[in-house]
Amino acid sequence: MSHSMLLVFEVTILVLAIFLGFEVISKVPTLLHTPLMSGTNAIHGIVVAGAMIVLASGHKGPFIWIIGFLAVVLGSANVVGGFVVTDRMLEMFKKREPPKRDEQ
Amino acid sequence: MSTRVADALYLIPIISFILALRFLSNPAHARRGNQIGAAGMLVAIAVTWIKAGGGSWWALVLAMAIGGGFGAVAARKVRMTAMPQMVALFNGVGGGAAALIALAELHRILPPPGRPTYDVSTAIALSGLIGAISFAGSMVAFAKLQELIGGRPITYPGQNVGNIVLLVGLVVFAIALAAGVQDQWLLWVVVGGGALFGVLFVLPIGGADMPVVISLLNAFTGLAVAIGGFELQNNVLIVAGMLVGASGTLLTLLMGRAMNRSIGNLLFGAFGQVTAEAAAIAAGTDGGTVRSASAEDVAVMLAYAHKVVFVPGYGLAVAQAQHDVRQLADLLEEKGVEVSYAIHPVAGRMPGHMNVLLAEANVPYPQLKEMDEANPEFSRTDVAVVVGANDVVNPDARANRGSPIYGMPILNVDDAQAVVVLKRSMNPGFAGIENPLFYNPKTVMLFGDAKESITKLVADVKSL
Q1: The model scores a pTM over 0.90
Q2: Can you give the pLDDT at residue B135?
Q3: Rounded Cα–Cα distance for residues B75 and A64 (Å)
Q4: Domain interval for residue B438
Q5: Which residues of A touch B105 (CB under 8 A)?
């Protein structure tokens, strides 16, 4: 595929993702806005994939290696932290607690 | 693995991210959605590893162990009340990673005769700029929420003009970079300047406006990541980043609408500067008297009510009183009182903050009422209990044109038969705005730390 065709293709994907994002997110109730924030936060942790590609080309020079390394550190903190925090939050949303738990 | 195979496999994470967001539309299976998202992320990492890994695998393992270890520990240890700053922190590091990728890519391409194509140089300039703004802005938001620096708006003369000049300058540099003036120092200026702008732009924004800032920064990071996908010709970055960009943008708009303020006003208005006019009008409330009540009195009011509505605010988070509130609610329900919670969309420091806190305390979510649902119910409510909320129940937002929050939709707690306000002292709330609700003859104040007050109420209701 030529470079310009690839670019057009990528822009198409970008635009579709914008509409898809609006569509999907508008169905999320306010109740879950915090998990939504932290869940999307975890999803942009995909940046770690980009960071990995950079670090993998680290043999091209120490500068790229160092920057790539830092980027992978930041990216993986983003991914792991984002998903764990979201899971902790969503775990708490329950419909009905088992009746009578007054031991405190 | 060839690029083509990798791109095909990248469809798996893309689909799983969309499903993760889709599952969030219902609390009953939201958690499974998040797990699907995490599984998709693992696939994305594995595919990238196989495609690119090779040489420096030990560096990848080390970097991932450091970052992932930090993320896991921080995310597990954090208290639910500190969630907003945690979200800000993880958001910031993502933006930082996007900016770093831009720096590395330009460095990799540039040595002569290398020349990035215009789309790649544009992407590098943009993701460097936006990523840096998001990183630094999120760090300031984190510092503010963690109270490392004051939560009040920090303002100085010429602030907006200075910020705008800086931003315009950065955009000019970015355009130059995109258009072909390809020197690495130029990108460093853009990234460094972006970081400076991020700091200056979040500093003047007060704690009460944090829900808006955090969702905006979330959108920025998503955008920076999506643009990063153009540098690396990586579809999964483009789709995932843009989903987040769209979601953050939508949330930002929703928050703005909930406060009835334009985004421009939120970002550049330095909320909390009380206008002289408003102060003068508010001074008129001095004539009213504030009635304070003892915990025993309030306990009697609550125990003999038919319907009680709790209105939580940031003060609930600060006092960490969510468990005690639920305990009190349970007691009241045992006595046959109908209990619910009225949640203002911007109560707290991030979108949906109160819902998470109350969920932590095992409050069943059907009891959590959104503003539109809660407001008509106040007229048949016996007691509205305001726990650490202020601006979101301030009747000035309806009536006082001079008030800085005029026009913001509020919870109409003054429609209830009686209002109990739990408050530390008579100091005006975060924004320094007087609240006539406190002088309303229907209102009684229960002064003291919210957690202690509620504990006392629990004891008193029990002894009735």
Answers
A1: no
A2: 96
A3: 29
A4: 276-463
A5: 54
